[in-house]
Amino acid sequence: MRLLFVDTCGAMASVALGDGGKIVAETNLSLDRRLSTRLLSVIDGLLAETGMTVAGLDGIGVAVGPGSFTGVRIGMATVKGMALAASLPVVGVSSLALLAANVPYARHQLCALMDARKKEVYAGLFRCDPLPVALGAEQVISPERLLDSIGSPTIFVGDGAAVYRELIVAHCGDLTQFAPPSCSYPRGGCGIVLSHEAFLRGEGRAPERLDPVYIRASEAEVAKAAKA
Fold first, then answer.
1. In this structure, are residues 110 and 168 in contact, taking their beta carbons and an 8 Å threshold?
2. Structural domains in the chain?
3. Alpha carbons 175 and 172: distance in angstroms, whole number
4. Is the pLDDT of residue 222 over 50?
5. Backbone φ/ψ region at 134: left (φ over 0), alpha (ψ -120 to 50), beta
């Protein structure tokens, strides 16, 4: 099964190609205002370098969030457009599960943290042996409230873990471990593996049926609710 995977949810974007669940190629790039114009050229370049084509793909995987609202929309729109044009099925992957996948065979539970700004984090707890399995619902929450709920040894991973490292240590003490800095951002290669497994489980769907996972309400939704 030949797959493309796209993640644009965090501070770094990642694109990867895979064949049979194995990573063929991967490119990582910074998430900036030019991403919407750069993303398609990066995908085209990766396809050209590997000799693969969109028509030769069997499906596309995409990180559906949570994360940057703009980033999530760019990734989703790009993948949906490609999938519709090529009549390809798609699967969605949690950006937090993608982050947790950086630490396979972890001895303890993993807490994947993405900085959500506004003194909050996107957080998810996982068991990872080797692929991530959610231990509860993902949430956007203040780091203090999250850490008050941690009662067992936990490995923290993600840019949110770096931002709140001192607070995590102060709250959790000896229960705390941190994944290496190289694991701080999701990788498209992990997305290939997770997407391949999702397709094998029969989770492929038409692109119009794929929805983003924001968790937090947008600024426009908050303003509309306040006005109402």
1. no
2. 2-95+186-227 (3.30.420.40), 102-183 (3.30.420.40)
3. 5
4. no
5. beta
Tens-place pLDDT, residues 99-129: 999 999 999 999 999 999 999 999 999 999 9
- Can you tell me the mean pLDDT for 50-67? 97
Peptide bond into 181 cis (omega under 30): no
Cβ-Cβ contacts under 8 Å for 186 (sequence gap 6 or more): 7, 9, 10, 12, 14, 63, 95, 98, 99, 101, 102
CB–CB of 61/3 below 8 Å? yes
Q: What percent of the chain has pLDDT over 70?
A: 95
Question: How far apart, in whole angstroms, are the C-alpha atoms of residue 202 and residue 102?
Answer: 24
Which pLDDT score is estimated for 210?
A: 96
β pairing state of 154-157 and 139-141? unpaired
Bridge partners for 90 per DSSP: 60, 205
